Write a sequence for this structure.
């Protein structure tokens, strides 16, 4: 079963605009990660945030984590057509367990 | 670093047949994972290997599914007596022993059961 849900399910924006995707999860986590999947391809790891971190940046990506609300957000600034993809959050609970549980994904379309 | 590779990329089979998929992880990675992904959904965890030991298995992995990693390098996933509900993308990922568990995914094997 899916651990998390991404919101919105689909998002369409103009090139240059910012895109924000949210992820909510159900149980305590150790790490939360964001992945991108282009149509018909494998997943690419974007960024990882640990449960004791609140915000992390990587290039045009900004991730926040609120463990009290069991939610995370991914912000892509100055979007490009190449950012068109599905974005998934994924969580693990640590404690020696390696199982990573993915959310349902947000489908982002960036219109040139 | 050639990344994670999976073979075949596509497999079409008839219901009731057995199929086997192969995953070659990044060479220095000792952890290997199998996931299943259906259309419009995120990947669902199936199983995890640390070297050759299968340490975690999902309840999704029915007794028709078996995975092996005999020498701690490549892995195979076999589905026996395939059913139409097995149609999905099967993804393999590998990672190092880092506690942060960043996984590198292969391109997947798309299975269609007719």
């Amino acid at each position: 079963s899916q651990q998390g849900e991404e919101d919105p399910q689909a998002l369409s924006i103009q090139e240059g605009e910012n895109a924000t995707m949210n992820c909510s999860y159900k149980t305590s986590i150790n790490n939360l990660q964001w992945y991108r999947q282009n149509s018909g391809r494998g997943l690419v790891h974007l960024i990882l945030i640990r449960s004791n971190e609140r915000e992390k940046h990587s290039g045009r990506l900004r991730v926040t984590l609120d463990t009290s609300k069991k939610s995370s957000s991914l912000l892509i600034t100055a979007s490009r057509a190449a950012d068109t993809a599905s974005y998934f959050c994924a969580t693990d609970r640590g404690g020696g367990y390696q199982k990573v549980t993915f959310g349902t994904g947000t489908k982002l379309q960036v219109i040139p | 670093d050639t990344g994670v590779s999976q073979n075949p990329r596509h497999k079409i089979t008839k219901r009731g047949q057995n199929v086997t998929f192969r995953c070659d992880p990044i060479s220095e990675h000792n952890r290997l994972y199998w996931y299943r992904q259906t259309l419009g959904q995120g990947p669902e965890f199936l199983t995890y290997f640390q070297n050759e030991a299968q340490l975690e298995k999902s309840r999704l992995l029915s007794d028709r599914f078996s995975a092996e990693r005999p020498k701690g390098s490549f892995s195979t996933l076999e589905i026996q007596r395939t059913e139409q509900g097995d149609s999905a993308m099967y993804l393999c990922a590998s990672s190092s022993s880092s506690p942060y568990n960043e996984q590198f995914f292969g391109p997947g094997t798309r299975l269609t059961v007719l």
Remarks:
- The longest strand of chain A covers residues 43-50.
- Chain A touches chain B at residues 1-2, 31, 33, 35, 41-45, 48, 50, 88, 90, 92, 94, 97-105 (CB under 8 Å).
- Chain A has a mean pLDDT of 91.
